[in-house]
């Protein structure tokens, strides 16, 4: 009897293992299912939609601080070379090469003026990248190559990138018919339309050329669109509608409740970081209020005064000997701040390699 029971239990165990294996292979983790079921962003959509993130700009379109700003203005187009999983020795060598380039007078230290010049140069690289990408994006919405794009032409391409039938949408728009869009798509379209007409330089003809289309995708390239970007950010953060920002408005936490101690600490860091940025940098005259003009100056990536302040701030982070300059061992020690990549062996043979 015991032998029979043992054989039955063994068979049952094998069956359970087989079923479990099948379930693991075919099942998806619950927290991954939503992401898998979302329609992936198409290449066309990436080309013609304004990017959520602008390299070399201190603030995001949604009013959050750009957490990668220091790396962007220090590394420029070389950002991808400093991946988290890249080889530390190679990163170390690359960082030493950058140090020698920034050190213009070859005195083995980086001054604020030298860092300012470097920041402006790296920001210009981001501008050049955006300009080159814009050529491809403009071609995607201007297939006939006449050098101009109407709003209707653009929204047909946009809707096609969202999965709508391009010919059907073109026909409906031509006949002024109801497009029957879902609320989310309609909201995005309305926001894009406002942005489109802002990018249309006077006298407005409702057509965008390649330069205007660059401003549409990258508002940091145009003073007028930079003003529009600032206006949108203030509108979202300004609680009393006075078109200015107070400290309390700028550090107000997003809607939601803190669920645990870890979330509370993250929120505390978020508030502390924004408070420091508001008081020390954004509020230029230190009157407790950031006006649209102050925010515009703060957001302008090609503002030389901002670049100098940023240079001083970056040096201060790593300036352990307090000489207001940056030495090679300091920049290697604080590599994570400058590149996002931590070099564990920064102190080994620094001066020898240099």
From TrEMBL:
Q: Name one GO biological process term.
A: calcium-ion regulated exocytosis
Which protein, by its recorded name, is this? 45 kDa calcium-binding protein
UniProt keyword list: Calcium, Glycoprotein, Golgi apparatus, Metal-binding, Repeat, Signal
**Of which family is this protein a member?**
Belongs to the CREC family.
Q: Where in the cell is it found?
A: Golgi apparatus lumen
Q: What Gene Ontology terms describe where this protein resides (cellular component)?
A: endoplasmic reticulum; Golgi lumen
Residue ranges annotated for the EF-hand domain, each copy included: 90-125, 129-164, 270-305
Does this entry carry the keyword Glycoprotein? yes
Q: Where in this chain does the entry annotate a coiled-coil region? A: none
Give GO terms: molecular function aspect only: calcium ion binding
Its main localization is Golgi
Signal sequence span is 1-27
């Amino acid at each position: 009897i015991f032998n029979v029971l043992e054989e039955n239990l063994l068979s049952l165990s094998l069956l359970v293992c087989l079923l479990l294996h099948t379930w693991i292979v075919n099942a998806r983790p619950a927290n991954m299912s939503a992401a898998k079921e979302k329609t992936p962003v198409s290449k066309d959509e990436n080309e013609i939609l304004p990017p959520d993130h602008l390299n070399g700009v201190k603030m995001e379109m949604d009013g959050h601080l750009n957490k990668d700003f220091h790396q962007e203005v220090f590394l420029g187009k070389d950002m991808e070379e400093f991946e988290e999983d890249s080889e530390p020795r190679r990163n170390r060598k690359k960082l030493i090469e950058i140090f020698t380039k920034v050190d213009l007078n070859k005195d083995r230290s980086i001054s604020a003026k030298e860092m300012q010049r470097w920041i402006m140069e790296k920001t210009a690289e981001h501008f050049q990248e955006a300009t080159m990408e814009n050529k491809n994006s403009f071609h995607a919405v201007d297939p006939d190559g006449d050098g101009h794009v109407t709003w209707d032409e653009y929204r047909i391409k946009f809707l096609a990138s969202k999965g709508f039938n391009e010919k059907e949408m073109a026909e409906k728009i031509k006949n002024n018919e109801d497009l029957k869009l879902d609320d989310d798509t309609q909201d995005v379209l309305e926001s894009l339309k406002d942005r489109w007409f802002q990018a249309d330089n006077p006298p407005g003809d409702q057509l965008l050329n390649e330069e205007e289309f660059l401003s549409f995708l990258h508002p940091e390239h145009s003073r007028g669109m930079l003003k529009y970007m600032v206006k949108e950010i203030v509108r979202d953060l300004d609680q009393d509608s006075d078109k200015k920002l107070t400290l309390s408005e700028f550090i107000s936490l997003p809607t939601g409740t803190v669920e645990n101690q870890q979330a509370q600490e993250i929120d505390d860091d978020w508030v502390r970081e924004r408070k420091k940025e508001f008081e020390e940098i954004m509020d230029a005259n230190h009157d407790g209020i950031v006006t649209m003009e102050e925010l515009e100056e703060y957001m302008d990536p090609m503002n030389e005064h901002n670049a100098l302040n940023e240079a001083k701030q970056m040096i201060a982070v790593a300036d352990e000997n307090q000489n207001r300059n940056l030495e090679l061992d300091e920049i290697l020690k604080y590599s994570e701040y400058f590149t996002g990549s931590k070099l564990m062996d920064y102190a080994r043979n620094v001066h020898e390699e240099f």
